[in-house]
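Chain X:
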Amino acid sequence: MLYSAYELQRNWLAGASALAAAGAEWLGNPSNPFGYLGGGPMFAAALDVFAHAAAPRGKPAFGLDECEIGGRSVRVTEEIVHRLPFGQLKRFCREGVEGDPKLLIVAPMSGHFATLLRGTVERMLPGHDVYITDWRDAKAVPLAAGHFDLDDYIDYVRAFLEVLGPGTHVLAVCQPSVPVYAAIALMSAEDHPCTPRTLTMMGGPVDTRRAPTSVNQLAMERPFSWFEHNVIARVPQGYPGAGREVYPGFLQLSGFMAMNLGNHLMSHWEMFKHLVDGDGESADATKAFYDEYRSVCDMTAEFYLQTIDRVFQRHLLPKGELVHRGQRVDPSKITKVGLLAIEGERDDISGIGQTKAALDIATNLPDALKHYYVAEGVGHYGIFNGGKWRTAIAPVVEDWILAHNG
């Protein structure tokens, strides 16, 4: 019922959005005399804001067609290197450029598409051979493809690293810090030749007992059964994954919006004022952010519930109790991988110390292979996107990769 009700609302809003967009265009037309009346610009701006907020959204494109290397523009194309039912390994091929360090960016499976890391990819492209985990929307995966849980996530990371081969560097943004860390601990225990040279974790919930945020407290305050019965829905007919149990992306989005509702309301108020004043460029910047932010996807129920249980409620990794397909994940087996933990001073998703815990539990890793960096004045999103990421945080990542590139 939950998903069907959402679909009904989404379809209604799609029609309302189209009407509002048409009204805004009509009022904003220079040849329309009504647009010059006292309230014309204000009504046009209000309709434009509503149309943008209510419009349905699908998976965005990365849109990274070129990058600048050594003062010249280089063409960039996307290539699918490896394809699995719930995700694919995508490469950003730079025409005529070879020999740079291989960098696997592991995108979060937390309700948004991998394109949320467009700014991360764009910043790392000039100096690295960049790959990214492009996770699929669970409602687009047929039931015949089977299930996908936290163990499968770890297997996918290992499979992607084996495709890339030895000497790879990994950047895990937020949620994947735990499964990627687990995959690397397991590969280290086997002395696997494709164990990466470095792992950078940014704003990851490695140990959410440290400086718990409202997100962590929500997971701890409610029993596991509450999540099973209240946030899991079945994909309705009309999608390839009809019948699959999922944690819907629209629920994740509503939760994130509610956490900072005042900020989001102010952003839309500022966008409205820019449109009234005719400042389309500033309004477009806000629109671009929300186009990405509101583009959400579903997670499989089993992956979501296992993450709640193992990561946020029982804290199995930092306790040394996480088990993957019968094998204990032992952080002390990590002895050769350079670990970099990055946290944002104002992160309201993963609190200070939660990512740093990854360094503490790697008890047999030499201090020379550990590094911790706190980005001052930066929130969760700003760790991997925006000006602070480009000018202050990315250079730390680049230096770490270069220092351990063999």
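Chain Y:
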Amino acid sequence: MTARAIHDAGNPDRVAIDLAREPLPAIRRSAAKLAVLDSTEWFAPTSGGIRTYLLEKQRYVAARHELRHALVVPARRDGIVEREGARWYEFAGPRIPGNDPYRLLTSVGRMRRVLAHEHPDVIELGSPALVPWVLFRALRGRDIPIVNFFHSHFPALAAGSARPVPHRRRLLRDAAWWYARRLDARCSATIAASKFVADDLERAGLRNVVRIPLGVDLAHFTPARRANADATRAEWKLPAKGPLVTFIGRFAHEKELEVLMDAWPEIERQTGAALVMAGDGPERVALQQRNKSTQVHWLPFIGDRGKLADLQAASSIYMSTSPHETFGLAPLEAMACGTPVLAANAGGVREHVLSSGAGALFIPCNAHDLAEQAVTLLRGDLDAHGERARAFACREHSWESVFDRVFALYEQVQR
């Protein structure tokens, strides 16, 4: 098999194979010293941070011949993709209701075949629902260490944003924490990408927590792209002048973008700024209906990494409204471009803002405070904020340093 692209929208370059019955191709790099298998349900053409993390991991492995990487994700039909140092298996699975375009990974038989074929030294879990139990069943009789990456703060999402937490929500939150502890007990380590999440996990009784932040491609996301700002505005039919406030990501309930829609008319009135909403997701139509302003520009999901970075660099500030972010990769990419961040005063993005001094925080779910902080930030010294943002990204978040730590953890749990 030749190197092929996976999950690129409209790309027909994909090998179809019945993973339940047909022979699996011979493994490349069979002499690798460390073979890792990732599996997650949160991987799709328009997904964000987890997809980026796995793509960057694949690039890291490709540059190191002593490593081998396999990835198992759900898709519309069975398929297989081979890249330098990596093989990605797609299992046919049903859609997750209300979470288009994500699908469920359900096939124990296919997983058992892949595990027997790949012989991974370490497995990493990237989602908490069905994937762990498919893997646990497929692994019966095999002693392979498992690392769980806590990408989604599902106990906090179960609790919701209301304070105090209603009784029914408390029950859901407590059940979610029980489940998180059960997963942690079955794994050799649970990775948390931020201090916020690591502290929550340890308070809840998880015993195997390891903090490893995510990273950013510093050569790709760079302030040098600000030179493309005029062309970027023209390409997306954005105002030629004036501040741009940007959100790039998934339009989903947990992002709590309703507060931004409610705050925006006042921000626009006081600053003349335009709001850019780039992405896709189940809440897109509802957010558009909630919008009461004329200066909100709805862009599609941007799969082109160059265009994505250009938009980040052309923005005046990046908006992060969710108090549940376990890390906040898109805000970090904005910071690497020299763009300050306005974030909810909770969650992983809060740590970026506090550590860098490059932006501001607002009271979660409070439209009035969001508007006030946005106006203050837009009227302040954005260049100084941008310089601090870039310095923070360079100082602490290269992908190479991140994966050096991840693979060191893999070696540790093997012992």
